[in-house]
Amino acid sequence: MRNLTGRMVRAAKLDPTLFAEVIADPKSHGHAVWIVGFFAIFTGFGTFSRAGATAVNIGTISALVAWYVWAFTVFYAGSRFLRVTGHQVDRKAIMRVMAFACAPGILRIVGLIVPISLGLFWGTAIWSIIAAVVGVKQALQVPSTNQVAFLCITSWVAASFFQGILIVVMFAAFEVGAT
Known about the structure:
Layout: H1 2-12, H2 16-24, H3 29-46, H4 48-51, H5 53-81, H6 91-101, H7 114-140, H8 145-173
Helix pairs in contact: 2-6, 2-7, 3-5, 3-6, 5-6, 5-8, 6-7, 7-8
């Protein structure tokens, strides 16, 4: 567990050597799964102060689905539009990178404190996007940081839009906020 915590801290510090390790080491997949799980659960609990217990479940599920949409969109668009000649894009390596990139989102558990919850959400979102740029640039071996940043930002926006729709549908289905 100490190794996992250390890797999460290194990801949050935007350590490029960590992302190189994650890309090269298929065994880090287990750590990636734990990080995404923590991220989704802590995001869900971070919504409790705003919408109650049902929102924890909705927030957790929607964060997990949005992470997958973001990661897969980065892989798909990156492998199609930013392909480097002679380099084979590894889907699992991209997914591991994207998992480690969401490590700053674990701080969303602090969203239980209402006055800082919205700022915390946006801060960790921007931090995660920057971490994704650092890792994805290495995974795709693209020389242009601007292209990778554009890819990560537009993919995040698409995933967030999808997450918003999912949240509205789930809140309506469970009648959260209905009077």
